Structure formats: C-alpha cells, structure tokens
Predict the 3D structure of the following.
Amino acid sequence: MSNPQQLRYTKEHEWVTVVDADGVATVGITEYAANALGDVVYAQLPEVGDTVTAGETCGELESTKSVSDLFAPVTGEVTEANQDVVDDPALVNTAPFEGGWLFKVRITGGEDDLMTADEYTAFAG
C-alpha cells in the first residue's frame, strides 16, 4: 500500500493535497479504502458551491460489497467535482491518487486534524 508523502490523511481514509495558491485542495480516498471497498460502481459527490464540514458526510461511494459514506476531510466550499469518477467510478480503484480524485475544496478550516503519510500508514496498519 502506498501513501504519497506530500498528501495529508484522515482517520476515515481520505487524502488531501497540499493547498494550492488559490487555497484549493484536492480530495480523494486512499488505496487502503479503495481496496477495502472493493469494486466501486457508483459515486455521489458533493456539488460545486456546496459547503462541506470536516468530519461530516458529503457524499457516498457504492461498491459491489457495500455503500460507504464519504466524509469531508476539511471545511470549505467545493470548487470542482470529478465528473470522470461519476462517469467511471472504477477510477477510484484503479487510480485513487491520480485520476480517481473526488472533489476540490477551497479550505476554510479543519486541516489541523490531518495526519502525515507516516502517521496514516501507522494508523491504517
């Protein structure tokens, strides 16, 4: 299982990129979560303009095994949802850190509880 060092992670198995110059970060689920879910067949993502709150549900991923809530790793306004994942949810499994990202958010708070890659690896086992 790989956990890129430049990302930050949550206990709910989401990852967040370092914030860009516009205050926007990209969010996805980890390889660990993608493997645990199994084949993802449906993705309900937050919509552009939605406000998400760190730790609260903001969507869901449905796999052949179960339906899993998607939790916001940070607080902020959604600036983009990955339409490619809506059209082809399997991207979450095949490329969780690349094309399988879920949404982008302009962060206004909540990033203090994020873990480093090493902390997440220890947490996830």
